[in-house]
Protein 1
Amino acid sequence: QVQGTAGSSAVSKCSAAARGYIQDRFLRLLAGRRRRRAPLIHRGYYIRSRSVDHCVQHFLLKTQSYARTQILSLGAGFDSLYFRLKDMGLLHHTVVYEVDFPNVVCQKATLIKRMVELSALVEDTGGKGLGAIAFSGEDYKLLGVDLSELSELERALEEAGLDNEIPTLFIAEVVLTYMESSRSDALIQWAAEHFPQACFLLYEQVHPEDPFGRVMQQHFIQLNSALHSLAQYPDCEAQQKRFLGRGWTEVSVMDMNEFFTCCVPEDEQQRVQALEPFDEYEEWHLKCSHYFVLTASKGMEPSWAPLLPSVTVPHCAGPVGMAGSVSAAVCARLSGIPGLRRYGHHSVLIKPNMILTTGGFGEEDGQHCRMRNFHVLCKRAGSWKAGCVTKKNPDKTWGERLYHTVSCLSDSLALVVGGRTSPSSEGLGMLWLKFPETCDASDPDDIAVELVNLQPAAEPATLRWRHSTTEVTFKGEQYLFVYGGRSALEPVLGDWYFLHTRELSNTVIAVEGPVPESRHSHSACSWEGGVLITGGLGAAEQPLGSVFLLRKLEHGFQWQTVETHPPLIPRYSHTAHVHEGKLLLVGGVWFHASSVPGITVIDLMTGLCLDYVIDVEHLEWPLMLHNHSSVFLPDEKELLVIGGGGNCFSFGTHLNPEPVSLSLNSILLSH
């Protein structure tokens, strides 16, 4: 099973190369089968390839003055590293050794001999048959050895001509974690002890215990290729100590969010972000926070070691100080209702203790799909009940939308604004949802909703998604403040509209003050006649930590910054509510790898900002608090979280299986 990961990785890299993420004409020759992967997979393999190449080329550049150097790639699989470096003219005095299981290297050796484009770059000197050597060229050796058998590895490398006395780069790209920790530790220590001038490059997974990490771990367990390193070395700090304790003197480590921010030039970031329609930001950033690149060195010149810059993104540094915890409890009577397993949906309180949930992607009739059905959740006698809503007209009016908003404007009317089907399609417009003025909370299945299509009314304001719509009043008239988001043409929007709710027309109202940075996936709440905008993802795909108030004035509105202390940790894909002068932020995605966002409470009078962890001890499944919806019931100080989750890279789709109730009594009273 572990050997099978080499082929899967090669196919994914080949797909990324075919779409322009990676410049590599050799991958298609080595991958064997070809299969187009999703944009999220392309980005994941791009950053993996980019981080390894960054360190390898740095090593080669800085060792140009040496007469001879060597690279030892451990568990190389069907990687094309040697052929790329040779083609670029970077191997004038460097020999590349690749080691993997015997049957993997035999397949690779056969491919090299059969493919003219490969064999033209490396001349077979006929070393095959000498022990573990499957292929031997002047500057390329392919060895079949089980890495966990250290004595066999050492003997095979010696036979192949590896020189302990010259600068050596060891590469382990998602390899050591498949070995028992005692064996991988021994290999790390052996490399430090036997090579006086050496660097070690490690790329693998981290953070096994948070929700994404649990899904990741379970995926590899199901593949029968468990990640052994994670239990003993769960974070970057532990990995750093691992190498320092085994003979390496300089160690640098950063996760892939840090690497992308610090080591990939801005123009290259923009190039990659524009290659394909993309709308899985949460899963991209979570994937990046669960993989790291580490470089260790010893005996090398201090002017160029280590291979990574010793910089970190400021908001990634150090653990998040938590002021306390909030307990999460499953709503027992809502379990087992597939329609509530969804993400990218919207939930809104349409009557006291009655919630309407619409849209998103989730589980319906045993299949993962864009959700067509609406659901109503009703609370009666202290317990929740859910039912599927009857729609009075065809589904085509709805459009199976994700990342839309729903605003309840009266006892019988809600307005749907925006949303999308796929990231490459034009955004969807507006829709009225009409429901009875009086509904029987005891039987939510009997509630019917009528859909009324409103295209092409107010199109520029509504052809967007990941935006916000917030109710405001101005001079006695009711408006929806439509702000931010993104569209098929613009990856991030910073404009706004005042949508007159009676006429459904855009009204020009004066707005003063410095305009906030463009953003999507932010939160927006009504407060004191204005709007609070918090967080979001900016134009550079970086989370934002700003809080803005669109303050109501006599003649219009004014943008004002809300200062928080300590500063709010940048985040996006959260939800928000205001209660008695306190802004409550729920979940989201941030770049703080040490923890996941729980509940943040901001006192809007003093600016005091406190983070609370969500205690999930009583949940039997990972609680993913992004792409969720939440509804706050002020009388009970109860927060109901509905849905959430996403497509967890190549590890499968995780949908929070049932709604979760959070009691905020203790933290709201403590403020």
Note: The chain has two domains: 56-170+184-298, 324-663.
Protein 2
Amino acid sequence: MAKAFFRLQKFLRRIQFLLFFLTAAYLMAGSLLLLQRTRLVLQQGSRGTPSNQALPVPEEMSRVGMTEPRSLQNPRLLVGTDALQEAALGQQHSPHWLMSRNSELRQLRRRWFHRFSSDQEPLQTAGLKAMKHTAEHKGTYMGCFTHDSRERTLKGAVFYDLRKMTVGHCQEACAERAYSYAGLAFGAECYCGNTLPAAAAKAEECSSECKGEKGSVCGGLNRLSVYSVEQLRAGARPLRRNVIYRGCFRAPENLTDTFPASLIQPNLTVEMCSEFCSKKEFPLAVIRGQECYCGYPTRRFSLREGTDGRRCSGSRNASSAAGGHYCLVYQTPVQDTRCTDRKFLTTKSKVFVALSSFPGAGNTWARHLIEHATGYYTGSYYFDGALYNKGFKGEKDHWRSRRTICVKTHESGKTEIEMFDSAILLIRNPYKSLMAEFNRKYAGHLGYATDRNWKSKEWPDFVNSYASWWASHVLEWLKYGKRLLVVHYEDLKQSLIPKLKEMVEFLNVTVTEDRLLCVENNRDGNFKRSGAKQKNFEPFTQEMKDLINRYILTVDEALKGRNFSGLPREYVPR
């Protein structure tokens, strides 16, 4: 009996030790998990500044004394202990705000995409009853209407904001341009116009909630929620008055056949003609004497060859043109919609094409031109929420999906280049590229860096790091690129249609002449910088110029060595 009791006591002691060990292990695991979650929250809280997503600093290249931007440039590289060690080593030679934040970018992309996906869930019928049409809105809700992106009824200005769109924001934007109606679609797209859509839809078909305003209806799939626009208060000046003067052009032989709408008005002014054409929803207002014509750029009237402004008599506000052979042309706020429809490729592309450039070389502008010319979205090797929110829907698509016509990239390593079957290599004056990228880092896609930014120590560090990257980017693509089309930003800007035709043909897409003319009419897109630009501003020291000029000569020689035309003479040192 005593022996059995002793065995039982020994067994219970073992159980006590086991329970103690399990309890200690459980507490340690819980503590580690709590510390990990706390660290993650702190990391997420520290994000959100533009510097967190800054581009990397290239490492030194052994040949020609340039840089290799591969190692810290790719936000999709695996981020392990080695990558973190490389980043730490790079900080010894570069400003901390230039370092790549690979792991943070990947986590940010996952969190943002998860939030976007959850936002796309269809609203339940019960939730529709709670949606409001008039609270905090000005004007009247007109109803739900059908919407076709190709043949739009509201043909005025178009705006996108896939995160913060509200009914009030859309109404204000349309009111500033003196439109009568504001329509919202897909929860994030805003359309302006003066004519109410003819085809009404069922109220429940407008089921998309506004991205920036819970409980408000912002259209649906191919459906518009249309609101009337309340006129601006007295004293507020609509933007329509600020029409764009396109120049003096030779009038076509038969203006009535060329332009679908016309008006004859004694004492005709630019404001009268622009107002008339805007209400008719045409992007061009053409004035010859007392005659006003409205229409689009066409092969018969392409706006490519302007003439001396003195041939059009009087000032730009006058209504007469000498001899009736010339006419004044103005652009109204109405958007040319012949090239605004875009979509993803219906079948995966067999050729994987890159749109490669150094940062600040006009890649976003080139994407705008390509998308509107081909009708297909462009993709991106990275993720930029600001671009996605402004309508570049290929940003959220995986860069290797092959559902886009080409993929934006700033990469220049051998492995990254050889992933692509062909590439459009966009090159810009390094002086302009460096300034554009510096502006983007401090003021976003549309702003300008302040005088304080330019005079800080960050600017010379930026030039020393990025100037060599500009050269190495071109040299690496010339060395490893399989099939290249070299496009100079300056040539594209100067001869838009011919160069855009080359790019479209390289992408193996056939487009109509009218579509290209539409692109030319909408050439600036939504990413032209605005604000106080410093005049006669020279941020480059002589030492910086000497450095950049050496890289320019090296790249020019390399291009000619590959039987490409050299760099434009306007910035090649002589």
Note: Confidence is low (pLDDT under 50) at residues 39-135, 233-241, 315-321.
Protein 3
Amino acid sequence: CLCVKMIEDEVLTLPTKRNIVLDQQERVVNEIANQGRQLNENGSGANISIPTSVVETVEMEDDTVAEDQTALLAEFERRRRARQIHVSTDDVEVKANLRQLAEPICLFGEGPAERRERLRNLISRLTDDEIAQKLRKKEEEEKKEEDAKEEVTWYHQGADELQTARVWIAQYSLPRAKERIQKLKEYVAIPEVFRTAKIQDLYRRLRATSLHCSQLGDNRPLSYCEFSPNDQMLAVSSWSGLCKLWSIPDLRLIRTLRGHSINACSITFHPQATLTQDPLMINLASSSFDGGVKLWNLESDEPIAEIEGHAPFRVSRVKFHPSGRFLASCCYDHSWRLWDLETRDEILHQEGHSRAVHDVCFQCDGSLCATAGMDSYGRVWDLRTGRCIMFMEGHLKPVLTVDFSPNGYHIATGAEDNLCKIWDLRQIKNVYSVAAHQNLVSAVKFQRTEGHYLVTVSYDNTIKLWMHPVWSALKCLTGHEQKIMSADLSTDGKWIATCSYDRTLKIWSPELPN
């Protein structure tokens, strides 16, 4: 065997080197003896001196022999370890192990047997700590690659209808954006002392918020609630499959919408419902666990139309675009959809999240929308171009709720990690994290008109009000006996509605201005 031959050669090498040294020592001793005999013959009693260089040479040779012995013993120990190392006979696995050790997987003229022997020798030369460090570095690199793959956004080629819709959205949103910016400029022009006084008065009234009324909504848990645009009605969905309309503020039942045969997840009003929209036209949309999306008017108890294409996946949320022409739906097949209600066609099927999409909301201009994913990430999409313009990374658990501020550039998200995070589109980053609750945050809502405060609700049975932009707690409301599923704010700021797993819906009222 080659290994045995190499060992025998090195074993024979050491005596040879030692013999050379002994020969040199014997030669020096012989010279000294000859000098002694010559002195005795001459009758001289002088001392015999040994040259210093000779002594140093002998000492250096002794050190060399000791080093060679140490190196040889280390090599014997390494080869002993190598014999005890079990290396796979699978050449693919051997190459993978070499790659993990940052070594070439193949050398010129090297076969599987030589490659296997090279791996064994490499491992025998490394300590356990060095091997663990190399493997740890490889695992970190693989984790970074996996994270990078999760951040990949998928785009699909769209139809001509999608291009037409994007142009229409751009034409719709640009004037609204200009109007919003003009209002912000006018607000900033107001002297700061008056602005501060107005905000302080608002906060004073919010601190006096109390329960106005409570109503048993259904015989099953309630899942979602939303005010009508004129603040005169409240739509509530239930796990019984029923959706109900209640009057505000006395919570009298107006109508029961029957159409879902399984748990209803959400219900939302058309932006112009109860204002300029014809009561016989589409005024509401609802979704359910079986993927059904139904459209309703304000005159009938039965749906007037149904959007198909999600089954069998759950549709957790539906939201109207500010124009009312489009409807967004969040599906548990890891995508969200955009539907044109004029043609009842799906114009956008957007992937990008690696897990289910739970919530969606539109910016007030109508140019952007934000999605909350169960992959613990949020995304902001530009509907005019189709691009993901902001990736909201920071939550440690699934993101359940997202909402735009009326200023157009602040976004709030709530997640199962009990945190509420505030994001700034201008800086494209997270600007504040609020340790909001002791359980997951199920809903976040900005004040509808100016965004001076934020409302969060949680599975810890509490409703909390927060100041913007310092994010200090204004008020903590309690009253529900079980987890709160959803909340909404009226446009005029007079009411806060919550619905709960305890089957009740409640109306909370801040102190009215004088």
Note: The domain at 176-510 is CATH 2.130.10.10 (Methylamine Dehydrogenase; Chain H).
